[in-house]
Write a structure and sequence with these properties.
- With 153 residues, the protein is an alpha+beta fold.
- It has 5 helices and 4 strands.
- The chain has a 4-stranded antiparallel sheet.
- Strand 2 and strand 3 form a beta hairpin.
- Helix 3 packs across helix 4.
- The radius of gyration is 15 Å and the shape is globular.
């Protein structure tokens, strides 16, 4: 990766880390999911509004390093107004991005702006920071889908 692109990626992470988007408690969420990284103390609560297998809205609150805050902020921008199944696939793709040495072109295209976080794969201790919000998303969606199944029976 050239130095100009690396600098741009760092700027995006710093911007979202200092000024996270959708950083608030969501009114009447259908799901709240907490995430905690005991290694560094990052902690967040993810709020999701899910209806008819679609994420209508999302937000988060918490404290953490720039990587965890930026990851949560960028993730929420990407998951709003998409089907639950697409968000679940994004989780898988993001996990590959931060853990695999060479993610596929398809993975990179699917993730778009989220690829700025791919550099954490070179710093194994930071992977948990980048994936904290994503694991909260996965658990929250699993809970939301389970609740929808129960309420329709």
């Amino acid at each position: 990766m050239n130095e100009e692109l690396r600098a741009l990626y760092q700027e995006v992470i710093i911007d979202h880390g200092r000024h996270p988007r959708n950083f608030k408690k969501l009114d009447q969420p259908s799901c709240c999911q907490e995430g905690y990284n005991p290694l560094c103390g990052d902690r967040l609560t993810l709020y999701l509004k899910v209806s008819h297998d679609k994420i209508l809205d999302a937000s988060f609150e918490g404290v953490g390093c720039a990587i965890s805050m930026a990851s949560a902020s960028l993730m929420i921008e990407r998951i709003k107004n998409i089907p639950v199944s697409e968000a679940q696939q994004l989780f898988e793709d993001f996990h590959l991005l931060v853990t695999e040495p060479t993610p596929t072109v398809e993975t990179l295209e699917c993730l778009g702006k989220l690829t700025v976080l791919g550099g954490v794969r070179d710093f194994p201790t930071r992977i948990k920071c980048a994936t904290l919000a994503w694991h909260a998303l996965k658990a929250g969606l699993d809970n939301a889908v389970s609740e929808q199944l129960v309420s329709t029976e």
